Queue: 2 jobs
Job 1
Amino acid sequence: MFREGLRGVFSHGFRSFASITVIAACLLIMGSFALVGINIDSIIRDMERESQILAFVDESLTQDDARLLEGAIRTLSNVREVKFITREEALENYKAQYEDTSLFDDIDASVLRNRYVVYLNDITLMENTKEALENVPGVADVNAEVGIAKGFITVRNVVSVITAILIVVLLVVSLFMMSNTIKLATYTRREEIAIMKMVGANNGFIRFPFVVEGLIMGVLGAGIGFLLQWLIYNFITGRIMNSMAGNLFHLLPFATIMTPLLLVYLAVGILVGAFGGGMAIRNYLKV
Amino acid sequence: MVSLSNVRMRYPGTKKDVLKDLDLTIKDGEFLFLVGPSGSGKSTIIKLLTGEVKASGGKIRVNDFDLRTIKRRHLPKLRRTLGVIFQDFRLIDDMTVYENVAFAMRVVGAPNREIRKRVPYVLDLVGLTDCKNRLPRELSGGEQQRVAIARALVNSPGLIIADEPTGNLDPAKSLEIMMLLNKINEMGTTVLVVTHEKELVNAFGKRVVSLSDGVLVSDGTDGYYGNES
């Protein structure tokens, strides 16, 4: 019966080609949206990772005393990394933002405070961490861009929801398209099915080759879609990373997502192909 | 054995009975012509016997299956006891003669060893041994119908139902096919032939059942159909 399925794929060349093309195209469209979503999510996560809280140390503390606060800050939950910056370093960093540093020649580092740059594990808890830092003895002031953090979270959530909706919609559209293509391909074989029914084949026997045929087409469609996705992704990300935008954000290399992507492609291809193949002949089995 | 008792048939959504209290019995080993004008109910009888449709009333038994109570999942078992031949041959275009016949055995799960033994025997019986590797489109109409007969015969059915088997053939080929069906009948298989071919029916002198407007109007061997025109 497996041979029957294989025979079906090759003996109905054009119809099989149409089904495989539709499966590959649908997966490609779906995969492209998913990859855009995954990359936006990754970029936002990178930005989140760079989000920081500045904890200014009380001016009355010496630099050595100020350094001792690090231990207390590290014990706070949600703190990923802590970096101590002296007044002098802070001034140098400040100057580095300008081309003409002569403007700052008269400014003494003592006008600035020693500070800690605190990086967080979870940006959604920034407000809580800010409050906790304010309660650390020796910390005079805390500067946290809670509004920006909330903006990141909102954007990430919106992107996630939109991506999920698009993928679901495209999956439904793809299922419909694939099922119709396979149905059309099967329509011309209704005579064959009628003959099988007439000589006493049971429904399982009749359906199995069509399921196998759909499965083979699903795997081929998934494979072709995946290869095209690979080529297109590398081409587009290469262009982006070589442009100015490459300095602003980092796109995921295909190697890091290829295995899960391939598995999803194969799973969807197999499911849709086999299900579509089985469903397509349902009407012809009722005789 | 086939038995229809008080069979009434009305298709869903219609108001007219296409069969009215029909009684008909076909004994094992019998050869029977079923004749009648278009719309007389001949095709409906074939559909009832093959389980394609269910009767609106009455009792039907075919090869020990009660078609009034048969479940859909048991229809394949019924059909394995039948061999059906159609006017338009209904062969699979991309299969050779051998494959078309073997296909009927494969779908009922016959082992390969048995297929290799039985198919050449049946092809020899219908005189197609030399054509076994040819595709249906490379054959004449008569040869294609012989392939269809071989396919109907290959699973050793108790009853062969031929629906206008000579409708697409010239008189000489028609006679050839009918003689082949007669030969199969002589080997013990019950044969039911639905036909319009007056001369053929009369030439064989077999039992003839005539239908008109869903009613059995004659049943005998006296060539009733031949006297009607």
Job 2
Amino acid sequence: MELLNNLYTGFSIALTFNNIIYCLVGVLFGQIVGVLPGIGAPTAIALLLPLTYSVNPTSALIMFAGIYYGVAYGGTLTSVLINVPGESSTVMTCVDGYQMALKGRAGAALSVAAIGSFIAGTVSIILLMAFAPALAKFALRFGPPEYFALTAMAFGLLTVFGGEQPIKTIISTMLGLLIATIGLDVVSGMPRFAFGFPQLFGGIDFIVIICGMFGIAEVFSSIEEPEEGELVKSKLRLRDLFLTWEEWIASRWAIVRGGIIGFLVGIIPAGGITTASFLAYLAEKRASKHPELFGHGAIEGVAAPESANNSASISGFAPLLALGVPGSPTTAVMLAGFMMWGIRPGPMLFKTNPDLVWGLISSMYIGNVLLLLINIFLIPAFVVMLRLPYTIIMGFIIVFASVGAYSVNNNFFDVWLMLGFAVLGYLMRKLQYPIVPLVLGLVLGNLSENSLRQALLISGGSFSIFFTRPISLLFVVVAILAYLSPVIRWALKGLRQTKVDPA
Amino acid sequence: MRIADLIGGVVVLILGVAVIYFSSQLEYYSEFGPGPGFLPLWIGIIITAGAIYVIINLLTKHSRTREFFKPRTKLGLQILITIIITFLVLPLLGFSIGLALFIGVTMRMMGKHRWVPCGLTAIVTAIGIRLIFISWLTIPLPRGLIGW
């Protein structure tokens, strides 16, 4: 009953004219961002964030959420038609989606992606409605030790999901934490790492860093390595989008499995939608009776990752809203938005701002319906956008980033700082230091440090406080295992090799 | 690439040591629990240790190498310099005209466009910035000497 009540509250907010418009703008924008290479959801939201300072937070979040899951729909188009992922979360779609397009089934690939995303996304919203309040209730018991252990776990999990060089992931996380310490220390009032710049006393604004590291840094990378693909000529009339009976039979369980995997990966801190689509593809290949068809245009290979990425983008709101701990770069940027509006997400949010929480979640039902319609009826309009020259996209990014950075404090210091972070982000990317851990470290830095200090204050300086409380202990154990995962993986590999050659 | 990676590692190492040095000047432990220098010191230690690991790894193992400089790196650098010049002239020209010029110039620089479309795009950009950011969203962006 409570669920229906919440749903009622939510829809009464999400269905106001104003919020439907914000939702529509968000999903359209997300679809466009998804189609355009070189700009992703975190960048898009970071660039719009400074402009929404005076917008009602619920409406702005409805729009941002629309961008987030809209991107997961839009990225499919480039993956299928030009074999270039519009988004990292649609990388796996290229494998079979492009092969389908070459065989003249581009329409089927796009529609199975849209339908799968819609079904998995809707189920994910229902699960989110049930799971998020439960998680929030559970998190009410969290004290400082639990929060510190939770952030430590999130950072640790980054090393599991964060790429080939875990040590660089750790360094990157530490850089984020370090940047978060810049400015006046809240406890002692001492300036830290400000080096006499009064502009740094208030700390560096997230918007400045994110506009630089995601927005402009991505411009440099895209100029250097342009992603150019050949557009497959395909008919995309309405009837080309219909699935054959065989295709439908082949994809239905892929959608279900992908959706479930997506939901589960999405709620893990640092899980992320790219990991979700990757795992869903691998699981589908393993579950299939014809794994040899994968890579040659198997429709399940499109249905599974596409359902998973959409499902994960929605379940990712659970840790953000209920714990205040984002799991992906996009939700990290949204957390920065919460801070800008002076709202603290976390267990209390469900009590203090039920309108915001349920309005946001309910708007996702509407957004998914809109996206399904867009992706059935408006596909040709977005195909035209693939011809947009990159210089125009680049121009947009530079304009929005510099206006955004300037408007934070209305001074040029932040604009230059943003450019500095852009160069840093570009160099890090080139040297394979991942950016995402830095951003997570940055947005979670204050929570992490403050809860560490409060916990040690409570315990009189003894670290045992993290091990004697059950929830905290659980997080700490997971964190330690996560940090050790490279070593564990290495040891397992060694073990397997000795088994293979007993000599 | 190995050299670039090595330089990167050394820069990170220097950063780590600097963080240790500067945070050791802050109070490590106070009567209110850990002081302002507590976490930064540990961050510095972890960064330093990480950098040493990266450097040793590079010196002892042969890893797959990727070229640091690519054929289009130069173009990226030119765009960076253009951005720097743009930011320098923004206070004089104002955001709408300064950024519009940037877009016109970079469209030309990236090669494929004639002067006329570049000019038109620049004009549209200037009007767009003026209308959207300054008039509609009322962001107090500098309007420069011309006052537009």
